[in-house]
Task: structure prediction
Amino acid sequence: MSVGTTSNGAKLNIFSQLEDLRLIYDNSNYVSFLASSSSGLAINLSNNYGKWVMVGNATSPSFVHGNKDNALLGTNIEGSAILSGGESLGEYAGPNIINNSQYSVIGGGYGHKIDWLGTGDPGRGNFIGGNGGNGGNIIEKSPQYSSIVGGDKNKITSTTNIAPYADFIGGGNTHTIDSNGVGHNVIMGGQSSNYVYGNGYASVGGGSRGTAWDYSFSGANSQAGSSGKAYAVAGGGYSCPATGAYSMNISGGYCYSLASGQYSFASGIHAKATHDGSFVWTDSNNYDFSSEAINNAKFRATGGMRFVTAIDGSGNTTKALTLSTAGNAVITGGVKLATTDTKPICDSSTRGYLWFTQGTSTVKDSFETCAKDATNTYAWRTIY
Result:
């Protein structure tokens, strides 16, 4: 039987470009069925309550559900789906939209978008899920295999218009990944305003206002790496950046520390490793303590320091160097001087040096110190 057409190819053939079939409860409440021009199927609810659309495609059909304005746009949408949600009105609201992205999914919420750059290849294999909160999550610039699991107003983008690749945001809000090439960047979640910049493989662990550049890792409220300076680690805490290439800042808390030199390391409050290859370690005193030269190491421990080099079978110290707060050095296990270099000239620069010389079989050993007499004459003085 045919209705609206002379074609008899089906048992029941209804022809209409406006509405093929309507199921009516009353004049205000009904469901419309329509075969679309893309060989798909649309089911629309009355009063603009929502829709259900299956878009035909020879490779893999696509699916739209939820708000009436939810949409799959463009010609490369095979295998993509908008499963639910969408909102027509509101400052941060809006429909869910997938534009020229294949095999991509928006799971729910509203104002979400997986968007195309506008030229070149379509996006592929992207995912946005969860409730949009007060706004939409966006993955744009023809992304590939990127995901925003939840939260609101998060964005994966590219200021260089190179498609984001395999980037991930776990949740939270107003996080941004600016993926400029290699991709594989991660923001695990956290409260808000974490950022990833650069060429790839960077991570922010959580919290808020953390920033990571190329191949770097940052915890909360810290910066790891900077433009052109990669492979840095900032463990977290307030104002604890590691901005030098290959630098590390492991301080935590309100540390106000810095590792800005290449291959530098800072740990502790107000530790400032600003020279290349520098190492700065501090205690809890609230004063800056900074490196002084390239490949320089500095330690501040106003409670003293102890270096243990040997223990007995019960774990008790048998050999150690202890530097006390009184300025004394206590050496457990004795001291051995084995100087083999040429003895330097005794002058103001070597004043206070101790020098041990091992004698031959017929000559005794000697032990000397460089000292000045009352006439300001410097000389090696024999102790033994």
